[in-house]
Design brief:
Layout lengths: L7 H18 L5 H22 L1 H4 L2 H20 L6 H18 L10 H7 L22
Helix pairs in contact: 1-2, 2-4, 4-5
Length: 142
């Protein structure tokens, strides 16, 4: 999986180094603000990676990545002065969790294969009830 032809970790490193350079030269950001921006970038790449690989795990990683991104977004808002109570934060996270459950398919386990269905099917009934079949017939006398 590539991001602009490179590994996602390299793109994240470039973004982080660029942000640190801009902060050192031009932007009046605190260390906490830079860390929050870096965490939102990392969470965003995590969501992108989860969407790119969702067919491999049935979409379960998308739910986790979306929750991580929402948590990073709340943290970013708090660092930049957004005032949220614990109840508001919990409500946001609950909404994101339920949204993920609605948007990502409900069954997270793999569907049975055709071979598993064939072996778990009951045996066919070729005779009338009460008649012996090959499976339940008494052994021949010795």
């Amino acid at each position: 999986m590539k991001f602009f032809g490179r590994e996602p970790a390299l793109a994240l490193g470039l973004l982080s180094a660029g942000l640190q350079m801009l902060t050192a030269l031009f932007l009046p950001l605190t260390t906490e603000q830079v860390a929050a921006i870096n965490s939102i970038a990392a969470a965003g790449l995590g969501v992108w990676t989860a969407f790119a690989t969702r067919d491999l795990d049935g979409g379960r990683s998308v739910k986790a990545a979306a929750l991580g991104f929402a948590q990073a977004l709340v943290t970013l808002g708090l660092v930049f002065g957004v005032s949220l109570t614990e109840q508001q934060t919990a409500s946001i996270m609950a909404f994101v969790a339920l949204l993920g459950a609605v948007l990502v398919r409900q069954q997270s386990t793999p569907a049975p294969t055709h071979a598993a269905v064939a072996t778990s099917a009951p045996p066919a009934m070729d005779s009338a009830p009460g008649q012996a079949t090959a499976e339940n017939a008494a052994p021949p006398p010795a």
